[in-house]
Amino acid sequence: MINYILQVILFQVLFLAIYDFFLSKETFFTKNRWYLISTPIVSFILPFIKIPTFQKAVPEEFIIYLPEIVLSPEKVIQDVIQETSLYQSINYVNLLFWFGFSLFLILFLIKLFKITNLIRKYEVVKKANYTLVIIPNQTKAFSFFNFIFLGKEIPISQQVQIIAHELVHSNQKHSLDLLFFEFLKIMMWFNPMIFIYQKRITLIHEYISDEVAAKSETKEIYINNLLSNFFQVENIAFVNQFYKKTLIKKRIIMMKKKQSKKMNQLKYLVLIPVLASMLFYTSCAETASNEVSASKLQLQTRYSIKEGKLVGKEGTKDTYLDSYLGMEAPTGANEVAFEKLSTEEQDEFNLLKAKFDERFKDKPEFNGMVSFKFYKMSNGRNATAMFFNFEKLKAREESRVNNSTSKDLGVTIKTETEDVSFMIIDKAPTFPGCESGDKDCFSKEVQKHFSRNFNADLPNQLGLEAGRKRIFIGFKIDKEGNVVDVNARAPHKDLKEEVIAVMNSLPKMIPGEHEGKRVGVKYSIPVSIIVN
User: Distance between CA atoms of 260 and 257, rounded to whole angstroms?
Assistant: First the structure.
């Protein structure tokens, strides 16, 4: 959700920048009004649009999960009961959101009550196209839908002009625009762009009304009447006011401005490359949320493809992750990055992967035969997907193409196609001094480097509770062999900084290769630290 909100705000910033730099000085008031109404809506929709063509334009990266590093006096992992403190059990972000939502909703209702109170309290004169509300002892002038509020102290000579101006607001339903942004302010009160949008649309409304109302007389007379009196202002954001001190100067400048040339409408074409860039960004961005939510132990569902359909079957044990076994991605499921899994899910997979690697470490013929990915399934749970390289299996057991059983793997694989829709890296990056593509040597050398350079005394100096603490490290070896994009998730910021510093000190590697080309490879390492 946070990722979605940030994208919406980013898009609104870009849309407003286009408006301020290219469109705000033009006299295409109606077009600008619809621009300001439509672009916030578009910004909410764009993050959901994923164009496959754009997704394919970005090369797929390989991810290798290295065995867990354990730092403790003992060489075994101890089971530790993790207790959740009170501050962790309360979601303060949600609490803050609903507080802001409630506050802005109350403010909106108060403003609405003030308007209805004016209608109920003072003299109401019904006209053919509008309803006039006379406010005694005031020089206020504003409108709300078909209601025009007029101070009784405004001179009769100016009332006609003011009513004509407010009628434009009424006839063109400007109040709907302002209410739209009021609702956006309630829902996204933390988004400053909504407030800026509302200011821009308010000014456009005045430009439109001035343009229409000034046709009945010369612009000079209209401007003089506008400046001749200091009208009081009603402090309500979603009413159209005849006089607002901060807008008068801009209104006068725009009324004196010559009509924009039709050629200037080409400026709207700036939207085309901007929208294309936004679509490219949303299509290539990870669909998973940046937030990592807690998982629950549930009876595992085991998925497989039968007769071309995804079928789920209940397992026999409670797990954090469901499982999927097949030759291609499960239908209707969205891929999830390892970093987006919850801590429990990552722990469970790391244990599974460690057992898998331990079982087949002495069987090099299985190298590259199995790959893992993660998917969000229809039941809302994440699943570990185990993919088999059918070509390699077929080469080993030619006689079992359509229904093959691998005794070594202990699984049965049934397939109706020989197509392979996943990629397995041909040669992994090589640690200096290791044999080319040797994953085991790479893993051992990384562990040695970490153990030698990590400050083992640091965890006991940070006041952390005793027990096992988990750190998750991610880094990438780019096409040049450089260690880049190092990041970590740790229970303390000092631990995080220490881990990142250690990983950044890794030597330059020999880059990985796939299909004869150098490729970037991402790595993920879980680290367990026992705090005494």
Answer: 8
d(CA 482, CA 363) in angstroms, rounded, equals 30
Are 300 and 328 in contact by the 8 Å Cβ rule? The answer is no
CA 126 to chain centre: 49
Record the pTM: 0.52
Q: What is the largest CA-CA distance in the chain?
A: 100
CA distance 193 to 17: 11
Q: Encoding tokens for residue 431? A: 């640690």
Residue ranges of E strands in 90-245: 123-126, 131-135, 141-144, 147-151, 240-241
For residues 101 and 186, the answer to whether their CB atoms sit within 8 Å is yes
What the block records as the tokens of 305 is 């493809």
Task: Report which of residues 332 and 266 the model is more confident about.
Answer: 266
Taking only the tens place, the pLDDT of each residue in 52-93 is 666 555 555 555 555 656 655 443 333 333 433 444 445 677
Tokens 């096409």 identify what position? 479
Residue 308: CA count within 13 A, CB half-sphere: 0
152 CA to centre of own chain: 51
* CB-CB neighbours of 128 under 10 Å: 4
- Nearest-angstrom CA–CA distance, 275 and 281: 10
Measured in whole angstroms, the distance separating CA 478 from the mean position of its chain's CA atoms is: 26
Q: Which position has the token pair 């309500």?
A: 236
Flag whether pLDDT at 448 surpasses 60.
yes
